[in-house]
From TrEMBL:
It comes from Christiangramia lutea. Residues 1-19 form the signal peptide. InterPro entries: DUF481. Keywords: Signal. It comes from the Bacteria. This is DUF481 domain-containing protein.
Amino acid sequence: MKRFLLLTLLFLINLTSHAQKDSLVFTNNNIMVGEVKSLDKGVITIETDYSDSDFKIEWDKVKELFSESTYLINLTDGRRLNGTIKSVAVPDWEIYRIAGDTVKVRRDEIVYFKSYEQDFWSRVTASIDADYSFTKANNFNQIGGRANIGYTAPKWWLKASYSLLRSNQDDVEPVKRQDGSISYRAFLKKDWYFQTMISFLSNTEQLLNLRTNLKAGMGKFIIHTNVSYLAVEGGVSGVNENFESQMENQNSLEAYLGSELDLYDVGDWSLLTRLIIYPSLTESGRWRADYVLDTKYDLPLDFYIKAGLTVNYDNQAVEGAADLDYVVQTGIGWEFN
């Protein structure tokens, strides 16, 4: 019996030590043992047996990392590697690639990593948020929501998003707006990428029943650090539009040029802003612009508070429609990653 208990104890110790195989050493020399899951937007996530929720620590507070896990890793110079990470001597780190070679880096050159699992759900991220407003005067009420889901592979990602807004008010026509997109991005060398996207938009302000946009182009990260990233991209876009005042669909070809800035090392705050301009190639003098500004404040248990501004501009709007449409949304949401 004693022998059985001893063997059982040794098995549990071995199981625990295997599960808790990673460790972090902080700049104050404290040590945390657990499973290092990811580094994203300047925050490293570690799971431990002694807490129901994951710990999130700022990356610049980590001095050393020891792990046997395999990660998808992004560097500031645009390289994307698969392998294990180990600190050697501050500030030098080594990445042992699955391919068999070793890459020496500095800690601040590592801008992203995530544990590389074979199962589907470990590569999925998702978020959903909703908002509601009501004012007694004129019986004004507004409901809206947004949802996002993404899948990340070693050399590409696939993302989908959807946004909805409905508002009603006495003696005023209801306001309806919805938009969504599915985008694919393939990562290339030196922080270049290829991207294709199909998106749709409908809104009553511009008398737009449906605008479908299929675009493809190239982009590059100009800045890519643990504090922020700035990307620019350009390409061509095919457009199909249907307006309330027109019987037939309208087709056109556009070029597009855009930029995106993401700031994510501001404590629990993050900010994303994106501007895309579409000069028409088939309609003389016409151009459109889409602008997005999103800010988010993280709460415990993966909840967050979010506020956003979305603007759509068309300098040749159809007769009776506004050339400018914008929506401001605030709400609370939850994310999975």
